[in-house]
C-alpha cells in the first residue's frame, strides 16, 4: 500500500531490554533496529519467547520490573523518544499517541465496572472535556465492528464473548484518536470466523484513520492477511525484515523458511509440513556469542559459533545470517565475472 504521509513513523534503534535473573541481567531483546513506515501495518512473527511482546511494550515504555530498557531509543513522530518520557508526560502519551490492544483482552478490562464506566474513566484521565462526544465515538466504533454500542457499553466484561472483548480492546485503543496502534496477538484463542472479522476490522480501521500499526502474532497466515511489512524475530533479534509477500514468498533466513515450512496444510501433500527441530532458546540458554539460531540451523557454518551475524539490507530486505551473506557474495562475484568484457579482463591482466 502507499504510505500515509499524515501518519507518524516509528524508528526503533539499538533497542536492548534485559531482565534481572539469578544468573544476572539477561537480554530478552538485543540491539533491535526496526522502522515502521508511516501509514503501514508491520507484522512481527516468531515463536513464543522470541521477544515480540517485549518489543511491543517498548513502544509504550511499559517494560515492568524485573525488566528494563538497557539501551536504544523508540522515536515516534510528534512524540519524540518514548524511552526518555516519564511521569505525567508518559501517562498522557499512552492512549493519546499510542494505543495498545493487549494479548488477553479480558485481563485488560476491569471486571467490576461496565465497559461504559471504564470508557469514561479513560476519558477523564486524559482530560477529555466532551465525554458525550467520546461515548458517541465509542458507539460508532463498536457499531462499525458489528456490535450494539449501547448494549456493550452497559455490559461487564464477563457478559461479552472473547471476540467481543477483543473488539472492545480495539475500540479503547482508538477512541482517543491515537495514531500509532499496537495489537498484541489480536486473534489468539478466537475461532476462525471471529479471527477473520477481527483482521478485516484491523485493516479497515487502519486505512480509514490513517494509522501506523504494529501487529504481534505467531500466526503467519494472519500476518499475510493484513500486514504490509513483516519482521521475523528469534532469540530477541530481528533476523529478517521486508515486504510481507516477498518475505513469505521467498524467505531468505533459515528460520523464516522453517516457520513457513511448519505451517499445517489443509490440502495437497500434508507430509510437506515439517516442524522446526529443537526448541527455541530461553533467557538462560541464549548463547553469549555467535548466531542465536545456529543449534537449529541446516545452513550452519563455522563462523556461526563465534560471530553474531550483522543485519544487512539488500533490495529492500534485511537479513541477519552468515550463510545468506556468503551466498550474496558469491552471487555478486559471479555477476561481476559475467559483466567483465574480454578487453577489460586483458587490461586487468597486464595492469
TrEMBL record:
Region span, Disordered: 331-351
PROSITE patterns: ABC_TRANSPORTER_2
Disulfide bond found in the keyword field: no
Molecular function terms, GO-annotated: ATP binding
Subcellular localization: Cell membrane
Keywords: ATP-binding, Cell membrane, Membrane, Nucleotide-binding, Transport
Keyword Cell membrane: yes
Membrane topology qualifier: Peripheral membrane protein
Domain ABC transporter: 10-260
Family designation: Belongs to the ABC transporter superfamily.
Protein name: ABC transporter ATP-binding protein
Source organism of the structure: Sphaerimonospora cavernae
Amino acid at each position: 500500500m502507499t504510505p500515509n504521509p499524515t501518519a507518524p513513523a516509528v524508528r526503533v534503534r539499538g533497542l536492548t531490554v534485559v531482565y534481572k535473573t539469578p544468573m544476572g541481567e539477561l537480554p530478552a531483546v538485543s540491539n533491535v533496529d526496526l522502522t515502521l513506515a508511516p501509514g503501514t501495518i508491520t507484522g512481527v512473527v516468531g515463536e513464543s519467547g522470541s521477544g515480540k511482546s517485549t518489543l511491543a511494550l517498548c513502544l509504550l515504555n511499559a517494560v515492568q520490573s524485573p525488566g528494563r530498557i538497557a539501551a536504544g531509543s523508540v522515536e515516534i513522530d510528534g512524540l519524540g523518544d518514548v524511552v526518555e518520557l516519564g511521569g505525567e508526560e508518559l501517562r498522557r502519551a499512552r492512549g493519546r499517541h499510542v494505543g495498545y490492544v493487549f494479548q488477553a483482552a479480558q485481563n485488560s478490562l476491569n471486571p467490576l465496572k461496565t465497559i461504559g464506566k471504564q470508557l469514561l474513566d479513560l476519558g477523564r484521565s486524559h482530560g477529555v472535556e466532551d465525554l458525550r462526544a467520546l461515548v458517541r465515538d465509542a458507539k460508532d466504533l463498536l457499531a462499525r465492528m458489528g456490535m450494539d454500542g449501547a448494549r456493550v457499553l452497559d455490559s461487564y466484561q464477563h457478559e461479552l464473548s472473547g471476540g467481543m472483548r477483543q473488539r472492545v480492546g480495539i475500540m479503547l485503543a482508538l477512541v482517543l484518536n491515537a495514531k500509532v496502534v499496537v495489537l498484541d496477538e489480536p486473534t489468539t484463542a478466537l475461532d476462525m470466523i471471529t479471527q477473520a472479522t477481527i483482521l478485516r476490522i484491523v485493516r479497515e480501521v487502519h486505512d480509514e484513520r490513517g494509522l501506523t500499526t504494529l501487529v504481534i502474532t505467531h500466526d503467519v497466515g494472519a500476518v499475510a492477511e493484513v500486514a504490509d511489512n513483516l519482521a521475523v524475530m528469534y532469540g530477541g533479534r530481528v533476523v529478517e525484515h521486508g515486504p510481507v509477500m516477498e518475505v513469505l514468498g521467498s524467505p531468505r533466513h533459515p528460520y523464516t523458511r522453517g516457520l513457513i515450512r511448519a505451517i499445517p496444510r489443509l490440502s495437497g501433500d500434508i507430509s510437506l509440513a515439517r516442524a522446526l527441530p529443537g526448541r527455541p532458546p530461553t533467557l538462560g540458554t541464549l548463547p553469549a556469542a555467535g548466531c542465536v539460531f545456529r543449534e537449529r540451523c541446516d545452513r550452519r557454518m563455522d563462523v556461526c559459533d563465534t560471530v553474531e551475524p550483522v543485519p544487512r539490507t539488500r533490495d529492500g530486505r534485511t537479513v541477519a545470517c552468515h550463510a545468506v551473506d556468503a551466498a550474496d557474495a558469491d552471487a555478486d562475484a559471479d555477476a561481476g565475472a559475467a559483466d567483465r568484457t574480454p578487453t577489460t579482463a586483458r587490461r586487468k591482466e597486464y595492469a
